[in-house]
């Protein structure tokens, strides 16, 4: 198809509304994109197992997970960037001494290094997902860990940032930060997708709303910020659509000429 495009969608606040639901208008718009021969992809900070049902519902097999650390194109794993295990092991021990637990996450599951902790319960509950980490303190051994959730209050991560320079720490909840490989980003993961698909720049699109979408929206020519996006995101996007709960995806796709209402 001469004008085949690829459209990358963030999940929370973009594909899913504020209640973590998929708006009917979004589902219909994605179906229209696929029927027109376009490639629909997901670019998210989430683990693959956290949105498996969404991928099935929308028939999506190309996705960038863990903010660029785990990339799949048409069902095939094409790029991985796991955490440095020796550093992770040291940070785990450091955190235990300070009552800061950790959750290890690979491509299929997540496990906590403590059997129970209030910070883990409270923060993960806000994701409204089926999965909840069970206890396995040795889960990081002998496998690739692409991201960890580290549980500490705001400001406490500074100590770890200074001590573990091979990691990036990105706060997503008052009680938790994502631990990522240094320099990882959705934009970097998307680069591998674009190389595999060979889609021209003019036919590259991306939708997002959060701070971890900024690099993605900067790197994609046809970038769209959701109406509910933070101001920093709106400033870097080429277009701004409506709120996710106000048919924002449908409106945005119409705005860029990919679908018709």
Automatic annotation (TrEMBL):
One of its GO terms (cellular component) is cytosol. Keywords: Hydrolase. It comes from Natronobacillus azotifigens. This is Cof-type HAD-IIB family hydrolase. InterPro entries: Cof, HAD-like_sf, HAD-SF_hydro_IIB, HAD_sf. It comes from the Bacteria. One of its GO terms (molecular function) is phosphatase activity. SUPFAM superfamilies: HAD-like (SSF56784). Transmembrane segments: none annotated. The keyword Transferase does not apply. Coiled coil: none annotated.
């Amino acid at each position: 198809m001469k004008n085949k495009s690829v459209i990358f969608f963030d999940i929370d606040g973009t594909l899913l509304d504020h209640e973590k639901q998929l708006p009917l208008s979004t589902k219909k718009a994605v179906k229209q994109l696929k029927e027109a021969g376009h490639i629909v992809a997901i670019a998210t900070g989430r683990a693959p197992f956290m949105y498996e049902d969404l991928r099935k519902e929308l028939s999506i097999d190309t996705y960038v997970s863990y903010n660029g650390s785990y990339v799949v194109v048409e069902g095939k794993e094409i790029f991985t960037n796991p955490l440095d295990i020796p550093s992770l092991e040291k940070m785990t021990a450091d955190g235990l001494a300070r009552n800061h637990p950790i959750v290890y996450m690979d491509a299929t599951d997540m496990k906590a290094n403590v059997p129970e902790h209030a910070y883990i319960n409270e923060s993960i509950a806000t994701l409204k997902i089926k999965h909840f980490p069970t206890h396995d303190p040795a889960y990081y051994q002998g496998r690739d860990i692409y991201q960890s959730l580290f549980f500490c209050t705001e400001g406490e991560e500074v100590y770890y940032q200074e001590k573990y320079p091979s990691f990036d720490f990105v706060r997503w909840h008052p009680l938790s930060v994502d631990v990522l490989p240094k320099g990882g980003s959705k934009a970097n993961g998307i680069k591998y997708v674009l190389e595999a698909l060979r889609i021209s720049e003019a036919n590259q699109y991306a939708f997002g709303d959060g701070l971890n979408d900024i690099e993605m929206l900067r790197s994609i020519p046809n970038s769209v910020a959701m109406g509910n996006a933070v101001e920093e995101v709106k400033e870097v996007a080429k277009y701004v659509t409506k709120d996710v709960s106000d048919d924002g995806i449908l409106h945005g796709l119409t705005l860029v000429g990919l679908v018709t209402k």
